[in-house]
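subagent[fold] <- orchestrator: predict structure for attached chain, return tokens only, no commentary.
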Amino acid sequence: MTQLLDRRRFLTASAIALATAPAAKALAAMPVAPDPKWKKLTDAQWKARLPGDSYRVLRHEDTERPGTSPLLKEHRKGTFVCAGCNWPLFRSTAKFESGTGWPSFFTSIGGGLIKKPDYALGMLRTEYHCAQCLGHQGHVFNDGPRPTGLRYCNNGVALRFVPG
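subagent[fold] -> orchestrator:
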């Protein structure tokens, strides 16, 4: 009987570990825990702290014109952070030329983004936001390169590049 209980405990613990592994991995990859103060700023406070284009994209889910972002030509080593709160979102090693006119990445930094369904154009797309300030970044598609097959299509005005 003791052996059976030990086996059940082992199997239960294993199932829990497997189920929670993705969340634990994302938390471990986060530089620090998100600061909730960013989610408490009013729209007027965001408007005062962000340039017009960044404000419209980050806070009102607008989209910048394709081909206008200077980040399209950014190829140095470093990190792309949220322009609203400086939360790390993408490493430069994940950037690729998609030909879409927006900075594109095949993976994000774990815990950096939250996703939600978007039906604004009459079809299902996956929209993503900064996990810290909830600023709109762009949409993710399943037409990216290996190894993930994903294309995070990001508004350049929603990002800032930090070399290093």
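orchestrator: received. Logging for downstream: Confidence is low (pLDDT under 50) at residues 13-30. The chain is about 25% helix and 25% strand.
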